[in-house]
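Hi all, a correction to my earlier message: I attached the wrong file for Caffeoyl-CoA O-methyltransferase. Here's the right sequence:
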Amino acid sequence: MEHNLKKESDPSQKGLLQSDELYQYILETSVYPRELEPLKELRAATASHPRSQMATAPDAGQLMTMLLKLVDAKKTIEFGVFTGYSLLLTALTIPEDGKIVAVDVNREAYDQIGLPIIKKAGVQHKIDLIESEALPVLDKLLEHYENEGSFDFAFIDADKVNYWNYHERLMKLLKVGGIVVYDNTLWGGTVVMPEELTPEYMKQGRQATIELNKLLAADARVQISHASLGDGITICRRIN
Ligand SMILES: C[S@@+](CC[C@H](N)C(=O)[O-])C[C@H]1O[C@@H](n2cnc3c(N)ncnc32)[C@H](O)[C@@H]1O
Ligand SMILES: O=c1cc(-c2ccc(O)cc2)oc2c(O)c(O)ccc12
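and the right structure:
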């Protein structure tokens, strides 16, 4: 079997579909016409960043927006902010008194690129941006009993090797019926690639993602859907 790694620096080539034209078709037909203006602005401002490929894909963002609405999300948490595309779409979707705990080890890209657009969109008051590793923030939240079962929605888009550690803690913080979305659960298609053909820089993420996918599939606490949007997203709904 031939294995192709798609170049991820261009959003038109971000998907895992059979052709880039088909992905472009989805974006132009169904995603861009409905993308809100501040999100368009942030996507354009992020495009010149040397790591622009890290931003959440707009089609995955559109699904996230729907999920946030379906659970009527008011209290959410996000790991991995970068310039803030997923954060801004969450802030634009939840109600005026909604709150987002957003965590990133490095807030530079957020401060320089995302924050001015978020301020202009009038949604900064919903965001509590914490510059930190994700794990200590989760452990701190769990020290306060009132946080248990209190989150409606979580989006996890940070260091792939820790996703299962995040999941164990999120199972306590999420409401029954709440949703956690994991990004990059196909890790550029490497999950089906022989290890020796996987680029060195993707090997650790590949192994962690393969293990995560098996663990999520066997986890009776959640209902799951593994969707091939963007770089693969897995939607988990806490059921007990
Ligand atoms: C893929 S980007 C996030 C993209 C973002 N969701 C968006 O929509 O643009 C991953 C981010 O995770 C952050 N990150 C990496 N390891 C982390 C960790 N252990 N804890 C918190 N953030 C981390 C990185 O600094 C980076 O900004
Ligand atoms: O190319 C990447 C890299 C990451 C990444 C790598 C290491 C970390 O500790 C965190 C994130 O994440 C990405 C991502 O989420 C994406 O959608 C595309 C590309 C990358």
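Sorry for the mix-up. Residues 1-12 have pLDDT under 50 and may be disordered.
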